[in-house]
Specification:
CATH superfamily of chain C: MetI-like
Strand order of the largest sheet of chain C: 1-2
Helix content of chain B: 10-25%
CATH superfamily of the largest domain in chain B: P-loop containing nucleotide triphosphate hydrolases
Oligomer: heterotrimer
Shape of chain C: globular
Radius of gyration of chain C: 25 Å
Strand order of the largest sheet of chain B: 6-7-8-3-9-10
Structural class of chain C: mainly alpha
Strand content of chain C: under 5%
Number of domains of chain C: 1
Radius of gyration of chain B: 25 Å
Number of strands of chain C: 2
Chains: A mainly alpha, B alpha+beta, C mainly alpha
Structural class of chain B: alpha+beta
Shape of chain B: elongated
Largest interface: A-C, 99 and 94 residues
CATH topology of chain C: MetI-like fold
Distance between the termini of chain C: 29 Å
Strand content of chain B: 25-35%
Helix content of chain C: 55-70%
Number of helices of chain B: 8
Order of helices and strands of chain B: EEEHEEEHHHEHEHEEHHEEEEEEEEEE
Distance between the termini of chain B: 16 Å
Number of strands of chain B: 20
CATH class of chain C: Mainly Alpha
CATH architecture of the largest domain in chain B: 3-Layer(aba) Sandwich
CATH architecture of chain C: Orthogonal Bundle
CATH class of the largest domain in chain B: Alpha Beta
Amino acid sequence: MTAQQNLTRIVFTIVAAVVLSFLYVPVLTLIILSFNDSVGISLPWVGFTLRWYGEALANFGAFNAFVNSVKLGICVGIISTLIGLLTALAFRRAIAGKSLVLASLLIPLLIPGIVLAVAQAVLWNVAGWTMNLWTSTLIGHLIYTSPFAFLTIFPRVHRFDPNIEAAAMDLGALPLVAFWTIVLPQIAPGLVASFLFCFTLSFDEFVRTLFLIGSQNTLPIYLWSIILNNPSPQTSAIAILSMTFSLVMVATGSMLLRQRRLIGHSSITEAES
Amino acid sequence: MTAVPTKPTEQTDLELIGVHKRFGTKPVLTDINVAVRQGEFLAILGPSGSGKSTLLKIVAGFERQSTGIVTLRGADVSDLPPYRRNVNTVFQSYALFPHMSVFENVAYGLRRKGVKSTVLRTRVDEALELVNLSRFAERAPETLSGGEQQRVAIARALVNRPAVLLLDEPLSALDLKIRRRMQQELKRIHEDVGTTFLYVTHDQEEALVLADRIAVMRSGHCEQIGTGAEIYHHPATRFVADFIGETNWFSGVFDNGADIIMRDGTRLRTRATQGVANNTRVAVGVRPERIRIATDRESCRPDENRISAMINKIVFQGSSLRIEGRTSWGDPIELMQQTDRDAAAEPGKSATLAWDVSAMLLFQVTDERSAS
Amino acid sequence: MPAMTAPLPERNSSGAVHSATGFTTGITSYLQLSPLVILMFVFAVVPLLGMLAITFFKSGIFGLEPHLTVANYLKFLGEGTYIRVLIKSMRIAFIVTATTIVISYPVAFWLAKVVTRHKLLFLIILFVPYWVNYVIRSYAWLPLLGNSGIINTFLIASGIIDQPLSWMLYNEFSVILVLVYVFLPFGIVPLYLSIDRISNDLLQASADLDATPIMTFVHVILPLSMPGLAGSFLTVFVLTIGAYVTPKLVGGTSGIMFGNLIADQFGITYNWTWGATLAVILACVTGAVVWLVSRRVPITKVFVQE
C-alpha cells in the first residue's frame, strides 16, 4: 500500500473515532449519572447509588409500558415483514401499476411523521373508531414500517435466481411447495433483518404514537410523560435497562444466526463459506 | 419447412405440432413441427434470438404456446404446468439449490413424488454413480466446480426417469477443455440411460458431435431437421449452409441448366438442376476442406471445377493450414489443408484451385432455398 | 476449492431465464399487492386527502362550520409568527442536514472502504448508542449542556472559564446540535450503502491515474454515491423539519420548531382545522424540497438501489 493510501486510512480512522466518541458521550453520561445519588438529573455528583435501578425495576407503570412496546413491536415486525414480503413477491412480475404502488410506498418516507400522524388522528376521530394500542397505534406503526420492510426484503427477492424456483417446479414441486422449500430458506435472512428493523422502528417510535395512542402507554410515551413532569435519574435507569434488554436480545440472536445450517449436511459456519 | 413427419411405426416420445408463439404481436416461433423419436438425441441449433430457448420452455411448460399442441408419448400435455409433465430440465446456470447438499438436490424430485426413503436412497446413489459424483453427496453445491455442478444438475433431472430430458445450453458457461470433456460425458450418459434428449445449443460443433439429429432454427422458423451429415452436405437453405461449417460464397448468373458464370467470365459447373431458370442470380458455396491446390501437370477432370487464384496468406492452425486467397473474379476464397502435406502454394503467387462439382452448394438469391 | 458459479442470468434475455411466469396468470400478484395497497390507501392516502379537505373549513364549537373557506391559509400568511417559525425550521433543517452529511461522508467511507474485517462489528458499535430510546437520546444532552452540566462543570473546574456558558442549551444551537446527534445514523446508512457499491477497482484506477484523494472524491466517489447522498439528504431533512421532541426538550423558547406548533393545536386548544392547515403547509414545503432533489436524482433510484 502506498504512503498516500496509508495516510488516507489513518485520517479516516481518526475522523471515525472522533465521531464514534461523539456518539457515545451522551450514552456514557446517561449511564454514569444513573448512579448519581441526587434527585436532579445533572451534576453535581452526590454519591454512588443503585436506588434508581431499584425504583425502575419496581416501577409498574414503566414495566407495563415496556411490555406494551415489546408486544406491539413484535406484532408490527411480523405483520410488516409479511406485507413487505408479499409486495416484494408481487414486484417480481411485470404488472401494471407497479410504479404507482412504489410511489405510495415511498410517500410515507418523504412526509414528516407528524403530518401523517395528524392525518390519521383526524381520520380516527372523524370516523369514531376506538383508538387504542392494537388499532390506531398498530396501524400507525405499520404505515411507517411497511415501506422499510419492503425495501429490506425487495433486493433479496429481486436478486433471487428465478431459474432455481423454475427448477423446483420442473422437478414436480407445486408453486407453493417450491416457494416454501426453495425460495423462503434463501430469503430468510432478509426476512429476519426486516423483522428486527421494523421491531426497532416500532419500539423506538414516539411522535406518531403520541397522536395515535389510546389509554395505554408505550415505553417512549411513558418516558416522555416522566421527563416533562418529574425527571430524575430513574428515567435514565429505565432507559439503560431497556437498552440492555435490546443488547441481550441482539447478542443471543446473532449467536443463533451464526451457525448456517445446510439441509442434508452438518452445519457449516460462516467462516467456511 | 422441411420437417419430415415420422413414420407411424416408430415410437415418438415428443411431438410439437403447429406450434406458434407470440409475445404480444411479436412472433417468436412460427409453425414448428418436430417429432422426437424415442431414445433420440435431438439438438436444437440456432443463433441467439432464433427462438430455441422458447421452444424448450414450451416443452417444459414454462411458456404456453399461442397455438399448436405439444404431445408427450402420445398424450396432449399442452395445458399441463411444468410440475405435472414428465420432463425434466437441465438449466444453463445449473440452478442447483444452494441451501441443500448434493444428495438433497438430487433427491428433491423424488421427495416431491413421495418416494419411500429406502428406494429414494438407492435411486439417488444410482444417479450420482451415473455422473461419477458419488463421493460428493454431502457437499454443498457452491464448493463444486462448474463441470461438477452441471453433473449434479443432470443427475437431479435424470433420477426422476423423465420421458424426455431437456437441456438448455448446459455447457456454455464452461471452459473449452471442460466443455469437451462434458460433451463426451453427456454422450456416454445418453447411451447408458437411453432417455430421449432434447438439447438446445448455439454451438454447431457441439451439435454435430452430440446429436443424432439436428433441428436448425432461425428467427423462430425451423429451417431443417436432419442428421449432422445430411445438414452438412445437403443444407436446405443458405442459412443452414452458412451456420454449419465454413463456406466460401460466390454469386453468379445461372446458365445452361448447370453452369454458373462469374463476373470475369469464369464458368463453374454444378450438378444439373431443375427448377432454376437460366439468367437468374444464384449464390454458390463450396466448403474450404473440399478445395485443393492442383498441380499444373494434372489435367482437368470432367467432374471438377478449376480456377486460378492469387494466394495472399497461409495461416498455421495447428493440425491444419488455412490458405487465403482471391479468385480471378475478385472474391475472397479459403481452403483448408492438413499440415502434413506441403502447401504447394506461396503467398504472393497465383495457384490453381480445384474442387469436385458435387461439392457445390447452389441457392437462388431471392428465396434462399436450396435448388440442389 | 474454487467454485465456478455461473453468473446470474440477465433478466431480460429471452434465452437463459426460466420461470413459471409465462404459464401462470398475474392474479396472484394482484392478490399479493392488496394488503399493502389497502393499508396505504385507507390509512395514508385517504387521511391525507381528508386532512387537506378540512383545511378549507373552520372548526367551531360544535364541529366544522359547513362552508368552504381559505381563511386558514390567509391566517397563516397574515400572522408573522407562524411564517417565522416555518422559516426557522427550514433553516435548522438545512443546517442539520448539511452538517450530518459532512460528518456522514467520512464515516460512511471509512465503514465501506477502510474497514475490511469485522465490518458487522463496527456497524454494531456505531448503532449501539441508538438503542437508547429516541426520547432519551435528546434528553441525555440536558445534563451535558446545562449550566450545571458536565461540560460547564469541567470547564469551570479546570479553570478555562469562570462563568458557565449559558448559550449551549435552550436555543437554536442546542436544537441543531442534538438533532445532528439524533439523526446521524440516518445520514450514514444510505451513504454507506451507496459507497459500498463503488467497486474498489474504480478507486484504484483513479489513484493509478495520479488523482489526488480530493480529485478522486469529486470525480469518482461523489457522482457514484449520488443516490446515497440524495437518500441521506432526504431522510435527514424530512426527519428534522418535522422534529418535535428535540426542540421541546432542548430548544427552550427560541428553539421552537414547526412540529411543536402543529402539536400544540391538538392539545388544550384543540383547533383541528388550524393544526391540519399547518400540517398541510409543512407537507407542501417538504414536498417541494423532495421534488427539487428528485429532479437531480430520481426517487426510486434513491431507495431501491439494486
